[in-house]
Amino acid sequence: MLATRQLKAQNKLETYIQQGLSSSESIKQQNFLLEKNVYALKEAKTMFLPSVSFSTTYTKADGGRTIDFPTGDLFNAAYATLNQLTGTNSFPQLQNQNILINPDNFYDAKLHTAMPILNAELIYNKRIKTQQVDLQKTEVNLYKRELVKEIKMAYYKYLKAINASKIYESSLRLVQEGQRINTSLFNNDKVNRTAVLRSSNEVSKINASYITATKTAAAARYYFNFLINRPLTDSILVDEINTLPYQDKLLNDQITGREEMTKLQIAKEINGNLNGMAKSYLIPKIGTFVDLGSQAFNWKVNSQSRYYFAGASLEWNLFSFGKNTARIKQTIADRKAIEAQTDYVQLQLSTEIKVRQAEIQSAISQYNAAQSQLKTSKTYYTDMLKLYKEGMAIYIELLDAQNQWIDAQQQTNIALFDTWIAYTAIERANASFNIQ
């Protein structure tokens, strides 16, 4: 029930958080990087599918190497004999041929289709791209969680500042009334000039504190609006917060939900696939291809020019002077570095939770003490004011009671929102805020 009341009481803050998450330029930038990684994964998937390309070449040649073909020497004697036997010239004399090796006025146009059958590198590449998408999603959530923390802390600091301003504003009216009373008493010879001077000094002191508090509230407003990407001078709707935060998160000291740990786990998985990719040279690469085209001289296209050409390929890296071994050892070194970093970050985050738990417990103790002091100082001031009006107390005693009450109000205000700020810090430390 308490958690439900707190949630309803801070619906304005929740609205601002969602506004900040949707308008943050940093998160937009991370989302663009996520989109890039998604397209990289799609590209990796297409590498398993056939690829089709069209290519054509045309050659024009003259000179260069030739092949001599003795056509005349081979056939002219036989052709002469046949002409004598037939009494005709049906068999002409032939010239020896000199054939140019470079094809002249020759074209070759084809559609080339290729498809991998077995390629371990492509398999590992797809896995790595998938994990990089998960890594970037985690990075986006990390930015969101940090922004939520900053927004909530800025909001509570703004509330602390405006409440301090209200306290000083109320106190200013109080000391101004005291100044009026002392002036009246002085005019009637009931008090000396010292009471008037001290009351005037109190008005100046509280007025200065009030101005400082309003400036602090304005600065807090500017920063809060900056975080949610709004004009800096926009007004802020505030929730009524006058109770301590629900303390269920104090008991949660787990760090498994931290995006930092998730990123390290994904990095370890990526390293495993990089290691597998480095070892993939042990597996041969098998592919197939088909060419459908036409080739001939003088741009002729007919049944003789059309052709198909199909085949399969196998590539197996047998020896590379230790290059693959060095690549494998690099991934092993990276894995050890990730494991060491994981241990360090785990200890760091666990320590942070312990520190945050101590901070919020201290803040709660400070608030309880301030509450007690507030009740005591209010009673003390009320009693002293009554005695002063009856002439049974001097002004310095009233002034002491008045300052104690004002200070108690400020300390209570500070202690209250310090607990909420500490609550936000521990909420960040154990990643208990639900990121949409």
Average the pLDDT over all residues and give the rounded result: 90
In total, the number of domains comes to 2
Class from secondary-structure proportions: alpha+beta
Order the strands across the largest sheet as they lie in space: 1-4-5-6
Largest sheet: 4 strands, antiparallel
The CATH topology assignment of the largest domain is Outer membrane efflux proteins (OEP)
Determine the CATH superfamily of the largest domain.
Outer membrane efflux proteins (OEP)
Q: Indicate the overall shape.
A: rod-shaped
SSE string, helices as H and strands as E: HHHEEHEEHHHEEHH
- Please give the radius of gyration in angstroms: 44 Å
Count of separate DSSP helical elements = 9
